[in-house]
Please model this.
Amino acid sequence: MLADPHIPERPSLADALARRILILDGAMGTMVQALGCQTENTDELNLSQPSLIATILRQYAEVGADIITTNSFGCNALVQRRHNRSEDAPAMALAAARTARRAADAEYARRLAAGENRPVYVAGSIGPTGLSLTMATDASDPSLRESDFLSFKEAMKAQIAALVEGGVDVIQLETCFDALNTKAAICALEELGAQVPVIISATVSDKSGRMLTGQTLEAFYHSVRHCPNLLAFGLNCALGAEAMRPLVEEVARFSDLPLVFYPNAGIPDAMGRYNEAPEEMAAVMRSLAQEGLLNIAGGCCGTTPAHIRAVAEALAGLAPRVVGPASTGHPVLTVSGLEAYRVDASVNFTNVGERANVTGCPSCGWCQYHRCEYG
Ligand SMILES: [Zn+2]
Model:
C-alpha cells in the first residue's frame, strides 16, 4: 500500500517515548459489550463487523491516545480452536491490524489538519491465550500441558506475521502470566526476523506481585529481557491502579526499559462491572507520573474513552520516567527461576548447578525448541 503523501513519516516510537509520556488506549472487550454486541468471540468481529471495531478505536484516538491497540488479543489458532475458527485466525489478525492502521492514520491526518503534529501509533495486541505452558492442568499427571511449545510458537508466528503485514508499529505481548508462553512468542519473533519493536506487559494474580506461575515480576523481566527490539516493559490489568502502585514502583527499580502501565478500572464486582471512575483512575496515574514512574499509560479491562481522556488530561505536560541503567554501571549477571538472582560484587560465592533433567524432558519447551538430542 502506498503511503499517503499528505501524512509525514511518523517519528519512531522510541523517539516519541524519549520526549513525553505516551497515552495508550483502553479496553476493547467491555466496549464491544457496551455497544450491545454480545459475542463469545470478540476477535471474529474484525472480519464480520470491522466498522464496530473502527468506531471504538476512533473514539480512543479522538480523546488523545497516542497508541491504539488492535482487536487481536486472541487472533491465533490456539484461542480460535475453541470457536472452531483456527484457520481464520491469521485473517482476523490481518483485518484487526488494517482496521487499526486506517483509524490511526485518519486521526493523525485530522490532527495535522488542526495544526497538531502528533502521530497515532498502532500496537498489535497478542494475549496469553489462557493456556499455560508451565503449569500442569491435571494434578494427577504433572507432565500434562494444554499445549506444547512448538504449537504455541507456530501460532504466535502466524499472528505476529499477520499483524506486521497489516501495518502495526509495535507488537504488544500483553497480560503475560507465564514466562514460557512469552518465550514462545519471543522465539516466533526471532524466527520471523521481525524488526518490529516489542512491548511486554505482565499481569499479576494478587497483591504479592507474583504471576500466576509463581514467578516474581523481576524474575520474569530477566527471563524475557533478551527479546529482540524490546521497547518497553510493564504491567496491565489485574488489581486496579491504586492497588498496583507498589508493583509499578518495583518495576521502576529493576527495569532499564521504558515503563508501560495500563490497569483495569478496578476489580469487577459480583455482576462483572468495573466501577472505578475515570477521575479516580486518572488521579492515581497522575501521582505515579509525578513520581517519575511512567512512560506509557493507558487502561485495561473496563476502561472507556472517558477513562483515557481523563488520564491524557491528568498526564499532560508531565515528564516521562527517565530511563537508565538500573545497576551501578558494573555489568551484573542476573538469572531467574521463580525469583531473580543477581551475581554482583556483594556475592562472595555462587554455586552453579544444573537442575535440568539430563535425559531430556518431552514437556520442556526449551528441549523441544532446540530439538535437543534427548528431548
Ligand atoms: Zn485487563
In short: Residues 237, 264, 300-301 surround zinc ion (CB under 6 Å). The chain has a mean pLDDT of 91.
